[in-house]
Design brief:
Distance between the termini: 41 Å
Number of strands: 28
Structural class: alpha+beta
CATH architecture of one domain: 2-Layer Sandwich
Largest sheet: 7 strands, mixed
Bound molecules: dioxothiomolybdenum(VI) ion
Shape: globular
CATH superfamily of one domain: Aldehyde oxidase/xanthine dehydrogenase, molybdopterin binding domain
CATH topology of one domain: Aldehyde Oxidoreductase, domain 4
Radius of gyration: 27 Å
CATH class of one domain: Alpha Beta
Helix content: 25-40%
C-alpha cells in the first residue's frame, strides 16, 4: 500500500539548489564546527543563574499582578465589584475581563451577546486582575474583588459528560469550540450533547477501504480498550509576561515558544500595528506546546499596564499553571485490528474519545491511519467537552496517546501469531518510504545495542519482582517553519553576529546558530554573537513542531554563506587576490596558493576597512510536485521518528513499576550538535517515563477543583526514577535543506509509554491498558 506519512499521490521531490545557496555540506567528520558536541554557549549563564528568564525580569516601576479565578466550574457571573480592591494600598490598576482570549471562539454568540462577562466553564478560569506595587499588595487586593455567581450544573469526568442527560458545557447548538489540542480536529463537526464528532480524518488522513470486509478476511482479531490520563503542562517556568505599555509602543517580555505569535496576538487584540509591538524573550524555561500567543494572563497584563502606565508583571503561579496552563487530553480508545496469519493487516478500526476540557482537538488516530500498511482503515475521533481547564498542544499532540494503543495491539498480534514483534513491524511497515527504511535500520541498531535476543517469554520470572523488555516505534511529522529568516553581520572589527527572533526554549538555540555561522567563516562557535529572542530580528521559527533547528539553521547557513562571499569580495581587493581563491579556515583568511597572504580573521577584516556588511536569507524549500496543502503547512515529504526499547522491573506485591533501561534510536537528519540532539532525546524519554508511570491530573468531580495542582502531589519523574538511557542517532544526509537538520524533540517522547507497556506485559504476562502505571492501576 503506497501510504506514507504525507499521504498518497505525492511525487518524489528533487531538490534544486538555488544559485544564492551554499553547496551541500559534506559529512560531519569533514566539518570543523557543525556536527561537534559543543557545550551550550550559555551553559555558565544558565547554571549560575545569570540567564534572564521572563520570570526574572525587573523593570523600574514594575507592578506585580495577580488574577482572580473562579472557584466554581460552571457559572454565570452576575456582578463583579472591584471598588474595595481599587482602594486597597499599593493598587495601581484593576481590570475585569469582558472576553476571554483562549476560549473566544467557544462562546455562543446568541446566548452571550447580552452578557457582560464571559461564562465560567471551569474552576480556575480567570475573571479579573489587579496590579500593585508589591506581590503581597496584589494578592491582598485580589482577594477583595467580589464576584457574584449564578452556579450552573457542571460535569468534569469524560464518561459522565458523554451521558445523554449530562450538564451541557456549551449550551448552544451552533457553537464551534476552539481546537487548542493540536490534534487538528476540523471545524464544522456535528455535536450531540457534549460530544463532538466523529472526525474521521486525523490530520487530514481520511478513511480507506472497507473495514468490515477487512475483518471478514482476517484470521486473527485483536480488540481492546485503552485509557490514557490528563497530563498537565509543568514547565520549570510557568506562563507569563511583563507588559510595558508606552505611547511609543508596547514592549512584552514573554515566556514563550514563539515570539512571533506573542507580537501578532498582542497587535491584533489591542489594535496596534505590528511595528508598535516588541517582544523580548532571552530564555524560555521550557514549554511543552502551550506557550503561544499572549494568553489570558497576557491580555490582563497589557490591560493593566495600559491603565497604570507602568510595566506590569503577570506570571502564573504553580496552581494556576496546572489548572489553566494547558494539558494533554485524556483518551478512551477502542481499537480493533484484523490480520492474516502471516501478520499482514487486513483492517484497523479505532474509536477514540478524548476530553480537552473546554477546548477541542483531542484526536489520537493519526498513527493508526498512517504508520502501518493496511488497506482498510477507519478512525473515529470524538471530542468530549467537560468543565475542566483547556487542553493545549503537548509534545507530539495525540501521537503519544495513539501510539500507546497501537503499539500494544501490534505487540499482542505478534504474540498471537507467534512472530517476533520486530519482525512483524518489518512485515507491516509501509514499504519503500524513507521513513520505513529509517525505522528498519533503527530496529536493527537498537536490537543489537539493547540485547533484544535475550527476550524471554512473557511472565518468565517466578518471584514477586518480574522483569521484561518491550519495544515501540515513534512517528512524527517533519515540519518546517515557512519563510524562516536570519541575518548575519560582520562588523569592521571582525566580530560576527547572527540574528533571529526565534527563542531558546531550553534546547540550545544560540549554540546551533553559532555553530552553523562559524562553519562558513572558519571561526569557533564562541566567536559568533548569536542573538535570538527579539521580534525586531528577522522572524525565526516557533519552538513547536520540532522545527527550530530544521528551519533556523538553513536560513542561518544561507545568510552566513552570502555574507562570507561578500566578505571574500571585499578582501579580494585589499589582498590583491581573486575572491574565489579566498577561504576562511581555523580563524584565518587564506588565499589559495599564496601562503604569505594568510591573516588572522580579525586582522584581515580590519584591513578591508568597512563599517559592517550583512546578509539576510531565508530557509528555502523546493516543494515542486508537492501537495499544496502540505506545502502550506510546512510539512515535508519525510517523517521523523525512531524506535525505543525499554526494560522494566515490576514489583507484583507493591505494584511499583520501575523503568530500568531505555535504548532510543532516532533519526535526525544531520545532527548539528550531537550533544544537544541527544539531550533532546534524553528529555523525551524522561518525559515519556513520567507520563507512563506517574503524571495524572486529579479533578474532584463534586467541586471541579484540581486536587493535585502542585508539584508535590502531581508526581513528575525525579532523578532517582530516570532509567539508564542510551541514545543512538541515525544520520540522514542530503535532505531537504542546506544543513539537512531535522527535528527530534517530539518523536523522542512518542514511543516511551508504549515500549514500557509492552515491557510490562513481557514481565508479567498481563496487559496494562490504562495509564499511568501507578499501583492503583497495576494491581
Ligand atoms: Mo509543540 S506540542 O510542538 O509546541
Amino acid at each position: 500500500v503506497p501510504y506514507g506519512i504525507v499521504g498518497q499521490g505525492l511525487k518524489e521531490v528533487t531538490r534544486r539548489v538555488p544559485l544564492d545557496e551554499p553547496p551541500p555540506l559534506p559529512e560531519n567528520a569533514k566539518l570543523k564546527s557543525i556536527g561537534k558536541p559543543v557545550t551550550r554557549l550559555d551553559a555558565v549563564e544558565k547554571v549560575t543563574g545569570k540567564a534572564r528568564y521572563t520570570f526574572d525580569v525587573q523593570l523600574p516601576g514594575m507592578l506585580w499582578a495577580k488574577w482572580v479565578a473562579s472557584p466554581l466550574p460552571h457559572a454565570r457571573i452576575k456582578s463583579v465589584d472591584t471598588s474595595a480592591a481599587e482602594r486597597a494600598p499599593g493598587v495601581r490598576a484593576v481590570h475585569v475581563l469582558e472576553r476571554l482570549l483562549s476560549t473566544a471562539k467557544l462562546r455562543d454568540p446568541k446566548a452571550e451577546q447580552s452578557q457582560r462577562y464571559p461564562t465560567i466553564r471551569y474552576a480556575g478560569q480567570p475573571i479579573a486582575a489587579v496590579a500593585a506595587d508589591t506581590p503581597r499588595a496584589a494578592e491582598a487586593a485580589a482577594k477583595l474583588i467580589r464576584v457574584e455567581y449564578e452556579p450552573l450544573p457542571h460535569v468534569t469526568e469524560i464518561e459522565a459528560a458523554m451521558k445523554e442527560n449530562a450538564p451541557r458545557v456549551f449550551p448552544g447548538p451552533t457553537e464551534q469550540p476552539a481546537t487548542a489540542g493540536g490534534g487538528g480536529a476540523p471545524p464544522g463537526l456535528p455535536q450531540k450533547g457534549n460530544v463532538r464528532g466523529p472526525d474521521t480524518k486525523p490530520r487530514g488522513m481520511g478513511p480507506r477501504g472497507d473495514v468490515e470486509q477487512g475483518f471478514r478476511e482476517s484470521d486473527v482479531i485483536i480488540e481492546a480498550e485503552f485509557r490514557t490520563q490528563v497530563q498537565t503542562h509543568v514547565p520549570m517556568e510557568p506562563h507569563g509576561l511583563v507588559a510595558d505599555w508606552r505611547d511609543e509602543g508596547l514592549t512584552l517580555y514573554a515566556s514563550t515558544q514563539y515570539v512571533g505569535s506573542v507580537r501578532d496576538e498582542a497587535a491584533e487584540n489591542f489594535d496596534l500595528p505590528k511595528n508598535k509591538v516588541r517582544v523580548i524573550c532571552d530564555f524560555t524555561g521550557g514549554g511543552f506546546g502551550a506557550k503561544y500567543g499572549i494568553g489570558n494572563y497576557g491580555l490582563l497584563a497589557i490591560h493593566l499596564s495600559r491603565k497604570a502606565r507602568l510595566p506590569v508583571r503577570m506570571m502564573l503561579d504553580r496552581r494556576e499553571e496546572h489548572v489553566s496552563g494547558g494539558n494533554r487530553p485524556n483518551s478512551i480508545q477502542r481499537l480493533k485490528l484484523g490480520a492474516k496469519r502471516d501478520g499482514s493487516l487486513t483492517a484497523l478500526q479505532l474509536q477514540a474519545h478524548g476530553s480537552g476540557g473546554v477546548a477541542g482537538g483531542a484526536g489520537v488516530g493519526f498513527a493508526h491511519s498512517t504508520l502501518y500498511a493496511c488497506p482498510n482503515v477507519r478512525v473515529e475521533q470524538y471530542d468530549v467537552f467537560t468543565n475542566a481547564g483547556p487542553c493545549a498542544a503537548f509534545r507530539a499532540p495525540g501521537q503519544v496517546q495513539g501510539i500507546f494503543s497501537l503499539e500494544q495491539a501490534i505487540d499482542e498480534l505478534a504474540e498471537r501469531i507467534g512472530m517476533d514483534p520486530l519482525a512483524l513491524r518489518s512485515k507491516i511497515d509501509v514499504s519503500g518510504t524513507d521513513d520505513s527504511l529509517a525505522r528498519a535500520q533503527e530496529r536493527r541498531i537498537g536490537a543489537e545495542r539493547f540485547g533484544w535476543n535475550k527476550r524471554r517469554p512473557a511472565g518468565s520470572d517466578k518471584g514477586p519482582i518480574k522483569r521484561g523488555i518491550g519495544f515501540a516505534q515513534s512517528q512524527w511529522l517533519y515540519l518546517v517553519h515557512l519563510n524562516t529568516a536570519c541575518e548575519v553581520r560582520v562588523s569592521g572589527d571582525g566580530s560576527v553576529e547572527a540574528f533571529s527572533s526565534t527563542q531558546d526554549i531550553g534546547t540550545g538555540t544560540r549554540t546551533v546558530l553559532a555553530q552553523v555561522v562559524a562553519e562558513e567563516f572558519g571561526l569557533r562557535p564562541e566567536d559568533i554573537g548569536a542573538r535570538v529572542g527579539d521580534s525586531r530580528y528577522p522572524m525565526g521559527p516557533a519552538s513547536g513542531g520540532s522545527r527550530v533547528t530544521s528551519s533556523l539553521t538553513p536560513a542561518a547557513r544561507n545568510a552566513a554563506y552570502r555574507c562570507a562571499r561578500e566578505l571574500a569580495n571585499r578582501l579580494a581587493r585589499v589582498l590583491e587576490a581573486n575572491a574565489e581563491d579566498i577561504a576562511f579556515a581555523d580563524g584565518k583568511v587564506v588565499v589559495k596558493g599564496q601562503a604569505s597572504k594568510t591573516l588572522p580573521f580579525r586582522e584581515a577584516v580590519k584591513k578591508a576597512g568597512f563599517e559592517e556588511i550583512s546578509q539576510r536569507a531565508e530557509r528555502r524549500d523546493d516543494y515542486e510536485g508537492f501537495a499544496a496543502s502540505m506545502r502550506d503547512m510546512g510539512i515535508s515529504k519525510h517523517g521523523i521518528g525512531g524506535v525505543q526499547f525499554a526494560e522494566v522491573a515490576v514489583d507484583t506485591e507493591t505494584g511499583i513499576v520501575k523503568v530500568e533501561r531505555v535504548v532510543a534510536v532516532h533519526d535526525c537528519g544531520r545532527p548539528i550538535n550531537p550533544k544537544l540532539t541527544e539531550s533532546q532525546i534524553y528529555g523525551g524519554v524522561i518525559q515519556g517515563v513520567s507520563y507512563a508511570l506517574y503524571e495524572e491530573r486529579h479533578l474532584d468531580s463534586a467541586s471541579g477543583l484540581q486536587l493535585n495542582a502542585n508539584v508535590d502531589q502531581y508526581k513528575i519523574v525525579g532523578s532517582r526514577e530516570v532509567p539508564q538511557i542510551e541514545v543512538h542517532l541515525l544520520e540522514q544526509l542530503g535532505g531537504q535543506s542546506s544543513t539537512d537538520a531535522r527535528g527530534v524533540a517530539e518523536p523522542a517522547n512518542v514511543a516511551t509509554a508504549a515500549a514500557v507497556a509492552n515491557a510490562f506485559y513481557n514481565a508479567t504476562g498481563k496487559r496494562i491498558r490504562t495509564l499511568p502505571m501507578t499501583p492503583a492501576n497495576v494491581l
